[in-house]
Write a structure and sequence with these properties.
alpha/beta; 8 strands; 44% helix
């Protein structure tokens, strides 16, 4: 199997854009077409509604984006039924040829980290994913089990390096004794590991998460991590423009995946109870996001 990085780059080149669609099924925003029962987490009808909705989304985006990114919290809140839905969605997406980036932000020590890695990475995993988001803030030793499993299975990792949430600077921007912010030190350490996971494309399967809402910081991250794929959230509904989102890619539209969740799966015009009208709304939202990304690369 090709490396994760090589698979991403091949898809992006084929499609001409790096859009990744986030699968974040906010219960309060599920369109009327799919809503069932009370839509509360404990209602068994809710899981069925979420499954029908997300399978329809996967069918709409198949062949049109490189990857989808399920956010596991939205499935876990539904209990065992939600994990069954996650399994169903993953398998539909894989059958459709989509790459799976599991947004689980796992991070722990020793055998616990091994368990998390085994759960998600590789074709034989219970929740088979092409890549996994990882939280490194317990220490760099927590990353090794994930790196080992990723290498064994030709999978990818996206390590949280510079996020765009309001409290990110509480720790990430703290100054070290040499004057560097903490996130710089993390990026520099990851660059060494990234070199060992470079594929034929020249890109590394050890990637990082860098938010789109601070493009100047994304450029700083790229300087420190010249070969890592970037997973870039924040494009669209969270407020980042297409120009902001591509700032960390390193030139053109190659070098990572740009995620849009709400902007694609919950278009403002998608509240109709008519299936054809809903499908058209999602298609238009997807095409709009793709066009915005392509235009900034012209």
């Amino acid at each position: 199997m090709k490396s994760f990085a090589d698979r991403v780059v091949a898809r992006v080149r084929e499609l001409g854009h790096p859009l990744c669609v986030g699968l974040d099924p906010h219960l309060g925003r599920i369109p009327p077409l799919f809503r069932r029962g009370s839509m509360t987490p404990g209602d068994e009808a809710t899981a069925a509604a979420v499954e029908e909705f997300l399978l329809a989304i996967v069918d709409r985006v198949a062949g049109r984006v490189a990857a989808v990114k399920p956010q596991i919290a939205f499935f876990e809140q539904l209990g065992w039924r939600g994990l069954r839905v996650l399994d169903s969605v993953i398998r539909r997406a894989r059958d459709a040829g989509l790459l799976i980036v599991m947004d689980a932000k796992r991070g722990d020590i020793g055998s616990t980290a091994v368990g998390y890695a085994n759960a998600f990475l590789g074709a034989d995993a219970p929740f088979p994913s092409d890549a996994l988001t990882v939280n490194p803030w317990l220490g760099l030793d927590t990353l090794q089990p994930f790196i080992d499993r990723a290498r064994q299975t030709d999978s990818g990792l996206f390590v949280l390096v510079k996020t765009s949430n309001p409290g990110a600077g509480d720790l990430q921007d703290r100054q070290l004794v040499d004057g560097r912010p903490v996130w710089h030190a993390l990026a520099d350490a990851l660059a060494e590991h990234a070199e060992t996971m470079v594929g034929e494309s020249g890109w590394s399967s050890l990637g990082v998460v860098v938010g789109a809402t601070r493009p100047e910081l994304a450029r700083e991250a790229r300087e420190r991590l010249p070969k890592s794929l970037f997973l870039i959230p924040g494009f669209g509904a969270p407020g980042a423009s297409a120009a902001d989102a591509v700032a960390g890619l390193g030139g053109g539209l190659e070098g990572g995946l740009i995620n849009s969740s709400r902007g694609v799966i919950f278009p403002a015009s998608g509240e109709s109870g008519d299936r054809q009208v809903w499908e058209q709304a999602v298609d238009e939202a997807l095409e709009r996001a793709v066009d915005q990304l392509r235009k900034v690369a012209e």
